[in-house]
Design a protein that fits this description.
Growth Hormone, Chain: A, 16 helices, mainly alpha, single chain, 2 domains
């Protein structure tokens, strides 16, 4: 067993220099693009009502539209296996950004629901393609943990901004105004594409482990952990408000609790970003996934407001804290195609979680089974994360993974 020395990576520069210009460029690129591209997913709660009003669609059609966008966002992974390491990043990101911006603008002009569905799928495919680049570049920095933290923080901040401002800004307006705003934000990303000049994903990062017989099993465990993680969180979070209402808690206090939980999530993601790469990465995963499992179990048995508040805040805090470290561990076990596969797990979990949670809730007439299954998924994800990290809770040599001969 050998370890990689601190070497110079052709993409990010000296691994010992935490302020290397290439790393700063990637941090900025990841922050800007992840904030704007994830509006495809984050805007759903704000845009559902205006969509129903404009197109006269029913809730099932509305759900179909959002599911199609989620699915396309994830399936962008499949063609990315072909172009990710072959096409220059400045070219691929520019083309995808232009397509995403054009899709947002075109969405505002479409008057037929079927056409809108097709346009939104193309828009999400373009946005998901750039997300693959974001995930693949983050391990190339001198502090991947910080890069993944920025990836999460930027999305949360934009999501909070959208939920806070869009309902009042666009009250009574056509849904086209929202789409055109998103198109303008996407265009504003184009000046940041030159940050990618001179960068390539053709070779693995300097400290990536060669995926052999041993690390292949760990990589599979990592993908399983991410899928289980997203299955549980997307299912539980989708029904968090309804769980509180079913327990007899009033809508006002429940909304306040969820707002506080969202703020706690932003704080924890900022903490993870500030800590950055850490030799305690595996321990943080155990604590975070364990905390999520505990929070989910607190939702059992019609929780009163105080218990619900503790559960919601702990759930969101642990969720956004653990995610950068989970992504960081997986990124150590391969090149850009490893993060491409990771994006497929994220999208798959996101898309399947609410569907399975809704089916279990409808089949049993309550939330107990869904909550219990989600807790089991999180415990299983915790076990997979232990395998992913080679059974160690504290890494050696500042968190660098051992290579396997």
């Amino acid at each position: 067993m050998t370890t990689h020395p601190a070497t110079t990576d052709p993409t990010t520069g000296p691994a010992t220099d935490p302020l290397h210009p290439r790393s700063r460029q990637i941090y900025l690129f990841v922050g800007v693009f992840s904030a704007v591209l994830y509006t495809v997913l984050l805007v759903a709660p704000v845009i559902a009502g205006p969509l129903i009003e404009k197109y006269g669609i029913d809730p099932a059609q509305t759900g179909l539209l959002f599911s199609a966008e989620l699915g396309a966002f994830s399936l962008a992974t499949v063609p990315a296996f072909l172009w990710l390491t072959r096409v220059p990043l400045t070219v691929s990101v520019t083309v995808c950004t232009v397509v995403a911006a054009a899709g947002q603008v075109a969405s505002g002009f479409v008057t037929d629901f079927g056409t809108l569905l097709a346009v939104r799928v193309v828009t999400s495919l373009a946005a998901g393609s750039i997300t693959v680049v974001l995930l693949s570049l983050s391990p190339r920095t001198t502090n991947p943990g910080r890069a993944f933290g920025i990836f999460v923080v930027a999305q949360l901040a934009m999501g909070a901004l959208i939920l806070a401002l869009f309902p009042s800004l666009y009250a009574g307006t056509d849904v086209a105004a929202i789409y055109w705003t998103l198109g303008g934000l996407t265009v504003a990303c184009l000046p940041f594409v030159p940050l990618l000049r001179g960068m390539s994903l053709a070779r693995p990062a300097a400290d990536a482990v060669r995926v052999g017989a041993g690390s292949a099993g760990r990589f599979a465990a990592g993908l399983a952990a991410i899928m289980l993680f997203y299955l549980a969180l997307s299912g539980v979070w989708s029904f968090m408000g309804q769980i509180s209402a079913d327990a007899g808690n009033a809508a006002g206090p429940t909304s306040l609790v969820l707002s506080v939980a969202t703020a706690a999530g932003i704080v924890s993601a900022l903490v993870a970003t500030a800590l950055g790469e850490s030799r305690y990465r595996a321990l943080f995963q155990v604590l975070g996934l364990g905390g999520m499992a505990v929070s989910v179990l607190l939702l059992l048995g019609a929780p009163a407001l105080l218990r619900f508040a503790v559960a919601a805040v702990l759930f969101k805090f642990a969720w956004t804290f653990v995610l950068p470290y989970l992504l960081g561990s997986v990124s150590k076990l391969g090149g850009p195609q490893a993060m491409n596969a990771t994006n497929l797990m994220i999208g798959g979990g996101f898309a399947l979680g609410p569907v399975l949670a809704g089916w279990m809730t409808q089949a049993t007439g309550g939330y107990g089974l869904m909550i219990a299954v989600s807790a089991v998924c999180l415990v299983a994800a915790l076990g997979c994360s232990v395998v992913l990290n080679g059974g160690r809770l504290v890494a050696r040599e500042g968190g660098r993974e051992p290579a396997r001969d």
